[in-house]
Amino acid sequence: DTVMTQSPISLPVTPGEPASISCRSNQSLLHSSGHNFLDWYLQKPGQSPQLLIYLGSSRASGVPDRFSGSGSGTDFTLKISRVEAEDVGVYYCMQTLGYSFGQGTKVEIK
Amino acid sequence: EVQLVESGGGLVQPGASVRLSCTASGFTFSNYSFNWVRQAPGKGLEWVSHIAGSSDNIYYADSIKGRFIISRDNAKSSLYLQMRGLRAEDTAVYYCAREGHPLIPGFFDHWGQGTLVTVSS
């Protein structure tokens, strides 16, 4: 089974400052197509999850460009260049070779 | 506008069965794969099951394999999750999620609002 591990679990952030979340897989997510099969989702308080990033680094439609995804193989990062108050919530990575989520990273304003 | 509306949740006794439904609108249902994802109270997301557009590919999480059955009725634009032998640990909000791209796995671009299943005596 593919196990996804996120860090940190909790991330206090200051508006306007950058933030970074790590996601590691115990198996490579690099497909023979050359794409990394990893998504990032944000679940805002009281809402259903929403897609932010797919294939490791492609932003979904409507996602602000302050969000970026990077990494390959087993190590991935979600970065927010300048955090805004509306970015609070729990961020999840999900591997899409067989589907499993990381445990989530709760982002809150300091 | 794409809409996914789950129903069928509620309070059920351990060992009981329940069928969840997800009714879709605003797009051609048969063109998309779907998934069920659940979230126990105060916990993270757990992928449950996947079904392709023509039902030719179906996958399950190990935690529910043999107890849950995913299905769909393209004529009714509906997705289902038949849950049997329910346990306390199955208590969760169950979301249906559309896979929004035919060539990209994952890419859950639309989610329903979820339906809560509580397993308790």
Compact overview of the structure:
Chain A has 110 residues and is an all-beta fold.
Explained architecture:
The complex is a heterodimer of chains A (110) and B (121). Chain A has strands spanning 4-7, 10-13, 19-25, 38-43, 50-54, 58-59, 67-72, 75-80, 89-95, 100-101, 105-109. Chain A is mostly beta strands and 110 residues long. In chain A, strands 2, 4, 5, 6, 9, 10 and 11 form a seven-stranded mixed β-sheet that branches. Chain A is globular and about 40 Å long. The model of chain A has no long low-confidence stretch (mean pLDDT 97). Helix content of chain B is 0%, strand content 51%. Chain B has no helices and eleven strands. In chain B, strand 4 and strand 5 form a beta hairpin. At the A-B interface, strand 4, strand 5, strand 9 and strand 10 of A face strand 5 and strand 10 of B.
Reading the helices and strands of chain A in chain order gives EEEEEEEEEEE
Average pLDDT across residues of chain B? 97
Which spans of chain A of ≥5 residues are poorly predicted at pLDDT below 50?
none
What pattern of helices and strands is seen along the backbone of chain B? EEEEEEEEEEE
> What structural class do you assign from the helix and strand content of chain B?
mainly beta
- What is the global morphology of chain B? globular
Share of helix among residues of chain A?
A: under 10%
Spans where pLDDT lies below 50 across 5 or more residues of chain B: none
Radius of gyration of chain A, whole Å:
13 Å
Largest interface: A-B, 26 and 24 residues
N→C terminal distance of chain B? 40 Å
What fraction strand of chain A? Answer: over 45%
Distance between the termini of chain A: 36 Å
What order do the helices and strands come in, and which of them pair?
The complex is a heterodimer of chains A (110) and B (121).
Chain A: E1 4-7, E2 10-13, E3 19-25, E4 38-43, E5 50-54, E6 58-59, E7 67-72, E8 75-80, E9 89-95, E10 100-101, E11 105-109
Parallel strand pairs in A: 2-11
Antiparallel strand pairs in A: 1-3, 3-8, 4-5, 4-9, 5-6, 7-8, 9-10, 9-11
Chain B: E1 3-7, E2 10-12, E3 18-25, E4 33-39, E5 45-51, E6 58-60, E7 68-73, E8 78-83, E9 92-99, E10 108-111, E11 115-119
Parallel strand pairs in B: 2-11
Antiparallel strand pairs in B: 1-3, 3-8, 4-5, 4-9, 5-6, 7-8, 9-10, 9-11
